[in-house]
Amino acid sequence: MPEGPEIRREADKVEKALQKGSVIEMYTTFDRLKAYENLLSGSKVNKVATKGKAMLIHLSSGYTIYSHNQLYGRWYVKNSYTYPKTNRKLRLALHNEKQSALLYSASDVEIMPTEEIEDHPFVSRVGPDPLSEQVTVDMIAARSLDKKFRNRRFTSLLLDQHFIGGIGNYLRSEILFAAGIYPEQRPADLSEGQVRQVAEALLLLMNRSYKYKGVTTDETVVEGAKAEGKTYSEYRHWVFNRGGQPCRVDGSEIIRFTAGSRRCYYCPTCQRK
């Protein structure tokens, strides 16, 4: 499933395409949304926001299109009325005179008055989104120590969209490595300084992944790997998907384990228990 940085980049792409002119036609495969096809024609796109892993297309007509990619959804941006060669099923299309934004495979799509979008069942439950909202280290640290979250292990807490929106499986491992925190610890187990380390790593890596297309390592690792002819997948992460390989910092063997039925990775020396 795409994580927050991937959805934020898709939102940027969709926004850039749809702000090139008014929507001249909207198409949807969902019968329950067919009535909006004529209603939204002629609308301008004011903004494309994200809330965790959801995308929100705000229209000048006073409506917002909500979509969640789930496991298989994908947005394409093409020249107007040009469609990709794919076996995926088209769910939603927005066309202007120059470009089309096309959503395939996703089934979680809704259209609501913009003033009601905060009451949407998913949107209303998602925590702060660092890639679309003003979120600070102090805010994340305070949230970590709130009674709702402080006694939960980071392996489950970081994947909980109620805590912070947009964190998924690769970011979970990467954030804890960058903060030097053993994955099974809880905010309640840490000093105030360690809690801030997690908050700082969270903001840093979400923004780095967004800016550098999923890369969470730093420039030194990337430049060194490229000089050696290594591929994107070989330099992308610090620990995620690197079980059995040496830690980039101290050479210790990266450990892979399962947490919440999903794989997690850590360095046993950089992240001592």
UniProtKB/TrEMBL annotation:
Residues 238-272 form the FPG-type domain. Coiled coil: none annotated. GO terms for biological process: base-excision repair. The keyword Zinc-finger applies. Keywords: DNA damage, DNA repair, DNA-binding, Endonuclease, Glycosidase, Hydrolase, Lyase, Metal-binding, Multifunctional enzyme, Nuclease, Zinc, Zinc-finger. The keyword Nucleus does not apply. Signal peptide: none annotated. GO terms for molecular function: class I DNA-(apurinic or apyrimidinic site) endonuclease activity; damaged DNA binding; oxidized pyrimidine nucleobase lesion DNA N-glycosylase activity; zinc ion binding. Residues 2-90 form the Formamidopyrimidine-DNA glycosylase catalytic domain. Its EC number is 4.2.99.18. Belongs to the FPG family. This is DNA-(apurinic or apyrimidinic site) lyase. It comes from Marinococcus halophilus.
